[in-house]
Give the backbone structure.
Amino acid sequence: MNFLSGLSAALGAVMLICATTPATADSVDAMCEVRKDGDKRKGATGPCDFSQRQGYVDLKLRNGDDYSLRPTDKANHYKDQHGKKVVLKNAQGNSQEYKWEGGKKIIVTFDSGPSAQPVSGETAADLSDLVGAKAGQAEGELNRRGYQYAKGTTSGDTKYGAWFNKSTGRCVMVRTEQGRYRSIVNAPASDCGR
């Protein structure tokens, strides 16, 4: 076998491995409370896994119930694995509330203790619901959640924007392509000029 044939075979093997490796989601431990709409009492609560990848949200409850939410063309609107409509009604601080048509809702609360310091490069848990949203709509939501635009740059068709939250001291980097937020990751404060 000559050098070029060997190189071609090696490149083909690498491409096959890369093509079959699934994209991984950013996953965090959280507490999930399941309620029926209108219930004032606290619902069944327990640990759960929350993961998010490019706007898709997965909730895995420890009782074995799993929910897979795929984004629609409207910000904060999803469809679950059964085709039911789900709306993210509230996403502030360290919690998010997902409400299903038909009355069920799940309140996800993220750990806010000292061990929950954001890690640079990981998806910002409090903003994960905005991944996949139209940039113009999501910008207002970033402001509503306390983030202010700090600075940005463009590389080809991709825009990167640094956003800073004064009340939490957090900086995030938003990657926008084709008019939609493709990722929102934690960034060092220096990326926001702090």
User: Anything to note?
Assistant: Residues 55 and 131 are 5 Å apart (CA to CA). Residues 3-25 have pLDDT under 50 and may be disordered. The chain has two helices and twelve strands.
